[in-house]
Amino acid sequence: YESVTHCGAAVSCVYDEASKEVTVNARMYSELTMNYRIAAYVVEDKVVGEQTQSTGEVDTDYTHRHMVRHMLSSNVRGDALSQVAAGTEAQKKYTFTVSDDWNIENLSVAVLIMDDKGHVNNMATCQVDGGSMDYEYIN
Questions:
Q1: pTM exceeds cut of 0.90
Q2: Of 19, 35, 96, 106, which is the most buried if we count CB atoms within 10 A?
């Protein structure tokens, strides 16, 4: 490939408090013509629960970081976006309902864009409650 990173990733969420339904819009912009896949996850930070330590002891008050709560894509290899032409954008929408035992303030969505070799080429994250992350390029 001409550059290591050859696609951009963006994501936004709209949360309906009454129904607890979230609509996720995941987008990618390609610099190369390629078959891409997209994987998306609901992640919760600061989840307190049991954790077995390396010593074998169990910490019943352990704070877990960035725990996957729900997979939005059909599997870990992501959903096929088919061939995306260079200089164009593709998108995928997902919806899910926030579980009663999740803390909305600590929920985010992570979107991973995978190239035709199965490597994660770029990713974006945003908060579930009205968050967004647009394309970011740093030269």
A1: no
A2: 96
Q: How many residues does the chain have?
A: 139
Give residue 109's identity as a one-letter amino acid code.
V
> For residue 119, what are the β-bridge partners?
none
Torsions phi, psi of 104, nearest 5? -55, -35
Give the span between the Cα atoms of 76 and 64, in whole angstroms: 21
Q: 67, 49 in Cβ contact below 8 A?
A: no
CA dihedral angle for residue 23, residue 113, residue 84, residue 22, rounded to 10 degrees: 0
Residue 43 has pLDDT above 90, yes or no: yes
What the block records as the tokens of 127 is 């908060």
Name the β-bridge partners of 123.
Answer: 112
Dihedral angle computed from the Cα positions of residues 19, 103, 69 and 133, in that order, rounded to the nearest 10 degrees: 80
- Reported as half-sphere exposure (CB side, CA atoms, 13 A), residue 78 has a value of 26
In tens, the pLDDT along 64-100 reads: 999 999 999 999 999 999 899 999 999 999 999 999 9
